[in-house]
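Hey, resending since the last one bounced:
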Amino acid sequence: MWAEEVASFPEEAANELETYVYRLIDPRNGETFYVGRGKGNRAEEVARFYVGKAIPEAYRKRGAANPVRYTW
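The C-alpha cells again:
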C-alpha cells in the first residue's frame, strides 16, 4: 500500500467522535509500531505520512510490498 492507496477516514466517524485512538501495524510481524490519539481525519494524515514518506525507498526499488497497513 502506498500513500495514494490510503483510504479516507470515515467522515461519519470523524463527525461523531470527539477524539479516538488509532494504531499503525507492521504486517510483516503484526506488531503495532505507532499509536496515536486524533480527531477529524488525523489518523488518515498520519497513515499517509508513514505510508508515503517514512517508509524506506528501498521497498519501492525492490518492488516489494509496502510493509505498512492501517486500521481504524
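The helical segments are 11-16, 42-54, 57-62.

Sorry for the duplicate.
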